[in-house]
Amino acid sequence: MIAVESSQLQMIDKVVHISRVAKVVKGGRRFSFSAIVVVGDGDGKVGYSLGKANEVPEAIRKGMESAKRSMVAVPLKNSTIPHEVLGKYGASSVVLKPASPGTGVIAGGAVRAIMEAAGIHDILTKCVGSRNPHNVVKATVEGLKKLRSVEQVSKIRGKNVLEDGPTS
Question: What gap in Å lies between CA 87 and CA 162, rounded to an integer?
């Protein structure tokens, strides 16, 4: 008998925020829950989603399934990002700066969850403007989408990596 190991990727999932929302009906209020969930593979892929349901665990499960479908690739340079970037969404802005090895993740709750799920271990971040978790998560992912690696930039320019380097 041969044992076959499944090659299912181990996903990192984090719940950023859970809200109780109310719908006013004739007989009173009906309560349900919405959960912002971040999912990543710890190696440069991350996604987020909003799950809504009448129960908290069901809202989290729905959010995770949807987040896995909306994952984006993030170029990494060792354990940090290749360059500084600003992500904006609504009134929220998030500044992401690469950091030297050993710095750690210097970030608040919503941004920290995304960085840990994406597998970024050294980064400096700052939230500017609105601190609404919905918009901060979206602004952070927008910033990560803007990132380009050295290889991607050199390919766009039509040069090889050595040509683009500083001349001294």
Answer: 29
Which residues, other chains included, contact 128 with Cβ-Cβ below 8 Å and sequence gap of 6+? 92, 93, 94, 95
Region of 22 please: left (phi>0), alpha (psi -120 to 50) or beta.
beta
Map out the domains of the chain with their CATH numbers: 12-69 (3.30.160.20), 72-156 (3.30.230.10)
Q: How far is CA 151 from CA 51, 62, 79, 87, 165, in A?
A: 36, 36, 17, 22, 12
pTM: 0.87
Tell me the per-residue pLDDT of 27-59, one tens digit each, with 9 for 90 and over.
Answer: 999 999 999 999 999 999 999 999 999 999 999
CA 144, 140, 32, 11 torsion-angle sign: positive
At residue 46, the 3 state secondary structure works out as strand
Contact between 150 and 76 (Cβ < 8 Å): no
Q: Token pair for residue 121? A: 């271990």
**pLDDT tens digits along 116-147:** 999 999 999 999 999 999 999 999 999 999 99
Residues 6 or more apart from 15 whose CB is under 8 A from it? 35, 36, 37, 60, 63
